[in-house]
Amino acid sequence: MRQTVRKNPAECTGCGACVSICPKQAITMQPDAEGFLYPKVDGEKCVSCDLCEKRCPAGREMPERPTHLFGAQAKDEALRGQSSSGGVFTLLAREVIRQGGVVFGAALDNDLRVSHIAVKNRHDLPQLRGSKPVQSDVGESYQQVRLYLDQGRQVLFSGTPCQVDGLYRYLGEHPERLITCDVACSGVGSPGVWEKFVRSMAYIKQQKPLSVDFRGKLNGESTRRFHVTFENGGQYDAPLLRSEVGRGLARGIFLRPACHTCGYTSTDRTGDLTLCDMTGGAITPEEKRLGVSLLLINTAKGAQMFDSLPLHRRRC
Length: 316
Description:
Strand content: 15-25%
């Protein structure tokens, strides 16, 4: 009788596909000492169908895809100022919602825990905007995606490449109404470490932290900042790489073990689109200040969506 999904737990990305696909609901995600979620199998419920292992994306080879690279910015400068990079994700999400669709992405809850939520109107989109380098709990998002697709609605799902791959493994197909956007992450940080950071900030300020911007922008500056707002008006603001959170992430101190041997670090991507921050000598200081998104167009579906957006774009 099965007791684990992967023989080597270090290969597990925590995508949660095994939980969603289990026909007997025999698998739950349980946190380890660092707060990372891993599947736990209930031996009494398990019928050894092996569906969890067969659909698990860990260790699978990615199919080769022709990829086209673009630098892109939203034409709306105010939107770019509110976004981590060039504001492309928000434009994607607005277009899907305009067509009556649903957008899934990572959000911070009232306790600043990171989890995936569904958004159906433009007013709630700011919850999904911005970089969140802590691993998100997808919860029941995969099942909800299937539910909305079955209702005939368009769905945009944004997440790490392993989460996008997990969604496709769960669905067993690439539905036409599903658009996926994977982020070119540098690994996901420990939810347990992040929780301790939140408690530490509350203790130092003697106030509850209400909101966090991991890669905020200030007018006139190109340096990304770690910014926290507290309930009684207190604030903390520092260049990201000078904050304890930023230094730890940059050095890979509290990344998930599987991130150190990530199988998605190539241009063969899981999503229809791939988003990341465009940096380096290819952009001007003004572009760096406002932010430029680097887009990988991986499928015809992704190209069609990209062409419909109000963007400044250039081929890379």
